[in-house]
Amino acid sequence: MDLFIVRGGSPLRGRVSVSGSKNASLPIMAASIMVDGEVTLEGVPHLADVTTLSQVLQTLGMKVSRRPSPGTDSQSAVEILIDDETRCVASYELVRRMRASICVLGPLLAKRGRAVVSLPGGCNIGDRPIDLHLRGLAALGAELRLERGYVIGVAKRLRGADIDLAGPRGSTVTGTANLLMAATLAKGRTVLRHASCEPEVVDLARFLCAAGAKIDGAGTATLEITGVEGLEPVRHHIISDRIEAATLMMAAVITGGDVLLDNVITEHLGSVFEALQAAGANTERITEGSDPPRQEIRIGPGSPLRPFDVAANPYPGFPTDLQAQWTALMTRAVGRCRVRDDVFPDRFLHVPELARLGANVSRSGSCAVIHGGLPLRGANLMASDLRASAALVLAALAAEGESVIRRIYHLDRGYERLDAKLAALGADLERRTDDSEITVLPPLPAA
Ligand code: UD1
User: Fold this and answer.
1) Is any ligand 1 atom within 6 A of the Cβ of residue 346?
2) Nearest-angstrom CA–CA distance, 296 and 18
3) Is the pTM for the entire model greater than 0.90?
4) Can you give the CATH number for the domain in which 328 is found?
5) Among 11, 175, 255, 333, which residue is least crowded by beta carbons within 10 Å?
6) 268 and 340 together in one domain
7) Residue 123 annotated among the catalytic residues of the structure
């Protein structure tokens, strides 16, 4: 298991390129199950979650390979092709490693008429049911039962239906993806109401349409899908990762740095710009050229940070996937603020770890309450989940002295080479194998 040793205090400076979106890549890779012929995906990031989904797809009889992309040195394209359509089991061993594996359920039922997919189970950010996925697939005509921790589904040809995806906490992102994919091959017309408007769902719709699907309303809460008989080979470029972009923006702000981000889509970051500007950060959106225009973001030295409350909500609201990072940032703003999470109200495992650095932060229901401005000092930290790991890295970059962050495998699930990117910007950050409990402790405080 790897850990990070971070010595805080260096302002980040320079240019960094944002990777392709994890949350767009995963459902689009799953959708390849439905395509007759080769799928070529450019911009898929190198991540543990992508490897896990590739393994899930391989056990489902798909060939998945990476090849260099023509004309680029470092980029590679993922190619996916059907090899054996008789295989329909996604095992607990793989699905438990990554919940997004559930995205194979809709495509399997739509294309192969049979699916045996493990229930993902709970996770560190709270209760994560899949009832809305299952209800929607049943409405499309799938017969589903739960047995020994697996969803077992059969379907002849799915048929279009009118489905409301509203759940107790708004819509569901991967639920929308699952139903959008399934409806693409269903007979007749499907309407998905209270669908997720997330850019990653729009990218999935763009991919499906390029393969021959008929979808209206992508990016709105109502999706209308007219089923088609099949999908054709397609090449698609994955959108850039708005969560990584925003995490890097906050890393620049928390260190008082001056950073230029490229490969960004600024429209996807509206709520982040609003929050950063309200907190006093110096942000600039740069658009150059045309056809297509190149977008960049500059984070420059700003005024001292001001406390600013955010509430995480579905897109276009402030993303729950940035709630932990914002909490870390607000420990540097002198004064009190509250960070609420309306999507995952239990997603606060980073709070006690931030307190270990000396931050005055506590949890109150679905909020973190921060009294910012206290000095942060390096400490031993434990990452609990993907985005919480990023929050700890940000706080450690701003802390005085050395921090050790363990269980960094959470971070590797969803950030492509974050340590290398931060180090290239001047962060004093080192990855080591956690082979010793003793030698990597930060210095003990004096009695
Ligand atoms: C996706 C993202 C994740 C992000 C989340 C919210 C991927 C791979 N993951 O996760 O990074 O944090 O969206 O933006 O894209 N819910 C139900 N019933 C369901 C499904 C969900 O009640 O059947 C609830 C969940 O418990 C949660 C809320 O709906 O409170 C939103 O969850 P959902 O949008 O489904 O999250 P994911 O798609 O799993």
Assistant:
1) no
2) 10
3) yes
4) 3.65.10.10
5) 11
6) yes
7) yes
